[in-house]
Design goal:
The complex is a heterodimer of chains A (95) and B (491).
Chain A lengths: L4 H10 L6 H18 L34 H5 L5 E2 L2 E2 L7
Antiparallel strand pairs in A: 1-2
Helix pairs in contact in A: 1-2
Chain B lengths: L8 H9 L5 H14 L6 E4 L1 H16 L10 E5 L26 H8 L3 E6 L39 H8 L5 E6 L5 H7 L2 E4 L19 E6 L2 H11 L29 E5 L9 H16 L3 E5 L7 H16 L17 H12 L2 H14 L5 H21 L5 E5 L15 H5 L6 H6 L3 E8 L5 E8 L4 H15 L10
Helix pairs in contact in B: 2-3, 5-6, 8-15, 9-11, 9-12
The chains are: A mainly alpha (95), B alpha/beta (491).
Chain lengths: 95, 491
């Protein structure tokens, strides 16, 4: 399943990274090299093996469903590229 | 007062306690060393004013008899840890002028124990790299130079290259670091320092810029095994703000250093003898085996049959998690925002301008392996292989208590030497990445020099939460190796 320029274009779009057309071929070749190297995993027999989803087997801790912080708009907005009157200012989302 | 910078953390703490010098004096000495070492590019941000304020507060607490365990000790902080009111960049342009409004739990623990921050240390962008060359702030230069390599500038390793270089060059008494595939241990090996990646969940990840959440762990880089034990004791601890933080009692690790290893069973995994490994590393490994045997340990040959699949599995799991974690950098709430005619274009341009090439490459791989139709073939497969790797270790623990391996397949290499081929760069982590996948503690100890006089490290791997035994074995290796090397000062 070789990766071509069209696949890179699609994946870059999914990842929301602008990649110029001129870079797509080079990226495809890089990614193919890495994916081909990864394919060696197919040598491993994993029939019936439970996927490992976390490094330590532990139950997710639960806590009371109560508000523990908040009321901190100024700190939340402190690093915003743009903000006005306690709100984030973002590009128009709905035309 | 340059001699104050050559102290170990342990002796510095004793000197501070005995009032042989003040926190302000030892901090000033380190600030001067940091300024003089700018050619190393180890720091992204120096914070001398903050350091002196913290030192003054330490001196006041010492005077009142309220000194904490790390009172007055000047440390460097990897710039992946969010520090309240101090710019934190992850060595990326996308974080722009990000100034955290909160303190990471690990740095809060250290500062709560009295440590002083000298500044923020350089790293690979988002901790993705093995040579420090992906930093948006330029690479760090290893303070060590090879007699065989002329005057060439060498990599300090990565991603915690700034932490390792700063400790090796006596710019700080110790440093924080993080390790997702080897990012504490490989730089430690390349710079003649000690670095431990603890059991997954021992140190809180809260406030550390996320790379691959199921693999990331914080740990210290230090001058000695005992210093690393002192720092880890302070850094570790349960944190309700990290749901994967382990709720376990943290012992004082320092007393484990110096404990006898007599009767311990040390496993030597045959699969770590890889093709093309330099004879010097092969020899160092044998030295380590002999030293532990002389110290009364029993050597056991073990097999970890899935070792060679750890790196390819890692290069699915880590990019997949990274592509999810890094989705937050959208230019809306913080960080760099690019221009664009539509919202999507703003996203795409913000990320294209803000991320470097290696980060983009990993996000693309992660997005690809998680995309519709490929999830089972790649991500699920990698998670199953990860289980096989963890099972290998469980099997090994039937016949041994710790494992001994080299830390890295080579000594520090020249900057620029391995940039052309991503896979050649990834192979640096072949011996370290297995314990990230399995969540196990592992330490790198400087144990010898190569023919050019560059440091080489040995790795000790332990059972989950058995940091104590890891420190004991590391201490035995340190003692037997009698590694006293320091880079000759050229900066």
């Amino acid at each position: 399943m070789a990766i071509d320029a069209a696949t890179v274009r699609k994946v870059a779009r999914l990842a929301r990274i602008a990649e110029p057309e001129a870079r797509l071929e080079a990226l495809a070749s890089e990614l193919n090299g890495i994916i081909a190297w990864i394919e060696q995993l197919n040598e491993v027999d994993t029939d019936g093996v439970e996927p490992m989803t976390s490094a330590v087997a532990m139950a997710a801790p639960l806590r009371e469903d109560v508000v523990t912080d908040g009321g901190d708009a100024a700190r939340v907005l402190a690093n915003a590229p743009k903000s006005v009157d306690g709100f984030f200012v973002v590009p128009k989302v709905v035309e | 007062m340059s001699e104050l910078t050559s102290l170990t953390l342990k002796t510095a703490l004793e000197g501070l306690k005995a009032k042989q010098f003040s926190a302000t004096e030892i901090t000033r000495a380190h600030i001067a060393a940091v300024e003089a070492a700018r050619p190393l590019n180890a720091f992204i941000l120096e914070t001398p004013d903050k350091a002196l304020d913290m030192a003054a507060a330490s001196d006041a607490r010492i005077a009142r008899g309220e000194a904490g365990p790390l009172e007055g000790a000047p440390l460097g902080i990897k710039d992946l840890f969010c520090t309240q009111g101090v710019r934190s960049t992850a060595a990326s342009k996308i974080l722009g002028n990000f100034i955290p409004q909160y303190e990471s739990s690990v740095t809060a623990n250290l500062f709560g124990d009295g440590a002083v921050m000298l500044g923020k240390l350089n790293l690979d962008e988002f901790a993705m790299g093995s040579s420090n060359e992906t930093s948006a702030f330029g690479n760090v230069i290893n303070p060590w130079k090879s007699a065989a390599g002329g005057n060439r500038a060498l990599t300090p390793g990565g991603s915690s290259g700034g932490s390792a270089a700063a400790v090796a060059a006596d710019l700080c008494l110790g440093a924080t670091a993080t390790d997702t595939g080897g990012s504490i241990r490989q730089p430690a090996a390349f710079t003649g320092t000690v670095g431990i990646k603890p059991t997954y969940g021992l140190c809180s990840r809260w406030g550390i810029v996320a790379f691959a959440s199921s693999l990331d762990q914080a740990g210290p880089i230090a001058k000695t095994v005992e210093d690393a034990a002192i720092l880890l004791t302070s850094m570790a601890g349960h944190d309700p703000k990290d749901s994967t933080s382990l709720n376990v009692e943290i012992p004082d690790y320092a007393p484990f250093v110096g404990k006898s290893v007599k009767g311990l069973r040390v496993g030597v995994p045959k699969e770590y003898r890889v093709d093309g490994m330099p004879a010097e590393i092969e020899k160092l490994w044998q030295d380590g085996i002999d030293w532990l045997k002389d110290a009364g340990a029993e050597i056991v040959e073990v097999s970890l049959p899935h070792t060679k699949y750890a790196l390819p599995a890692y290069y699915i799991v880590a990019p997949a998690e990274a592509s999810s974690n890094l989705a937050r950098y959208d230019g809306m709430r913080f960080g760099h925002r690019g221009e664009g005619k539509s919202l999507t274009e703003v996203y795409e341009n913000s990320r294209a301008e803000g991320f470097g090439d290696e980060v983009k490459r990993r996000i693309l791989i992660g997005t690809y392996v998680l995309s519709a139709g490929y999830y089972d073939a790649y991500y699920l497969k990698a998670q199953k292989v990860r289980r096989r790797i963890a099972d290998d270790f469980d099997q090994a623990w039937q016949t041994c208590d710790v494992l001994l391996t080299p830390t890295a397949p080579s000594a520090a290499f020249a900057l620029g030497e391995r940039n052309a081929d991503p896979i050649a760069m990834y192979l640096n982590d072949v011996f370290t990445v297995t314990t990230n996948l399995a969540g196990l503690p592992s330490i790198s100890v400087p144990a010898g020099l190569d023919a050019g006089g560059l440091p080489l490290g040995l790795q000790v791997i332990g059972k989950a939460l058995d940091e104590g035994t890891v420190f004991s074995v590391a201490g035995a290796l340190e003692k037997a190796a009698a590694f006293r090397g320091k880079p000759e000062k050229w900066w």
